[in-house]
């Protein structure tokens, strides 16, 4: 399936429309294109509200899809993500909840049989249209061998933040290339700047080093030609890491570039890799052709209350118990599964003893916080504690504006990325509890400064390594 045709129809021929994408950057890209084409379009994400006068179109992240309004046309991009264990429920909600005369679903063809099965219950008229890839997916016959063989326009995909920066240094020490970097924990604004530098033909940054998070952002990188997969695992475990590569890596927008897949494993000899390359190629093809068998779902607080009848007085129960009851051994109908609630339960475990009503506890549990990041987790905890005491959370209580600095080490860079997550969380909460989180503009401005320092650090490190 393809999405470009649907986006054009949304912007030119229909009265009202909504585009739902998996990433803020994609929603931002669509809003920019629409407004540039003189079609007013609002941008709505969990952390942004940019409303345009007279707009009858919206570009949103899928979690922010409005299922209470009616549209002439709705587009849900990367629909195969309804099988994602953590975010899939938002795509399922959009699929079944958006009220539109036409609903265009764009993404991996592997999702087609499952969607057809699901929509039998709604009696929707489903039409499937396939689009051929405009450039072939061609595995190389030989591994990369050495980073000295990297050329302008190449992209290296690594599987950890540590490996990304190590590869970046190795390539730049050859003094032939400067590298842009993209990975999930980078601030979105920084990712956009890194993409802009790589795409600019006049820029010195002519190689991209990224994590597998680049898969859904392929439309932001129209200029790279060769893509290599990099793994340091041994032969006995290297296959596992390659199999964990998100299938979105193979669902890149048609016409962007040719892709050559080469697993480069340090601990395995070149001869061994040449012998095994055809085997890995078959594995890649198998990953591409896998079909989805079920979609994720999770309830709103109303759903949880009504679908856990054994809990008599919910106000006397703590949020964690309710989530465990709802997400545990629940029976669901065919083609559905309960989404992974691990992050929600981690939040619930932290805030359940606080004097906050159940609705607010559920809101905190649904917030986009990374509980595996110590600084982010501490930020969420402090926000919730302050909220429980006074119902007013001032940013200055936990963060001192003006203290952000350009990081001078990778540890400091990682810490700055975490601080950005905390500021991002404050902005998100300010849109849901506006009166209680009044410092949205201050948090947003500090976020911008944070992104700028991260961007400056990446550029400085690149030039320093190149000129050593």
UniProtKB/TrEMBL annotation:
Keywords: ATP-binding, Helicase, Hydrolase, Membrane, Mitochondrion, Mitochondrion nucleoid, Nucleotide-binding, Transmembrane, Transmembrane helix. The keyword Cell membrane does not apply. GO terms for cellular component: mitochondrial degradosome; mitochondrial nucleoid. Residues 16-131 form the ATP-dependent RNA helicase SUV3 DEXQ-box helicase domain. GO terms for biological process: mitochondrial RNA 3'-end processing. Residues 413-452 form the ATP-dependent RNA helicase SUV3 C-terminal domain. Residues 347-388 form the Suv3 C-terminal domain. The chain crosses the membrane at residues 277-302. Pfam families: DEXQc_Suv3, SUV3_C, Suv3_C_1. InterPro entries: DEXQc_SUV3, P-loop_NTPase, RNA-DNA_Helicase, SUV3_C, Suv3_C_1. One of its GO terms (molecular function) is helicase activity. It comes from the Eukaryota. It is found in: Mitochondrion matrix, Mitochondrion nucleoid. This is ATP-dependent RNA helicase SUV3, mitochondrial. The lineage of its organism: Eukaryota, Viridiplantae, Streptophyta, Embryophyta, Tracheophyta.
